[in-house]
Amino acid sequence: MRSAVPLLLSLFLVACATTPTETPAARKQAEASQLAAAQASRAGKWPAALALWRETEAKQTALDDWPAAGQARLGQAQAQAALGAPEEALATLRALLQDTAYPPALRAEAQYQAALLRAGQQDWSAAQALLDAATPLIPTDHPLQAAIFNLRARAALAGGDWAQARSRAGQALTVARIEPGERANALRLQGQAAMRQADWPSAKQNLEAALELDRTLARHRSLVADLQALAELAHLRNAPEADELERRARAVCTAGGGQDCGMPGTK
Question: Could you say which of 232, 237, 244, 263 would form a disulfide bridge with 253 (CB–CB 3.0 to 4.6 Å)?
Answer without folding.
Answer: 263
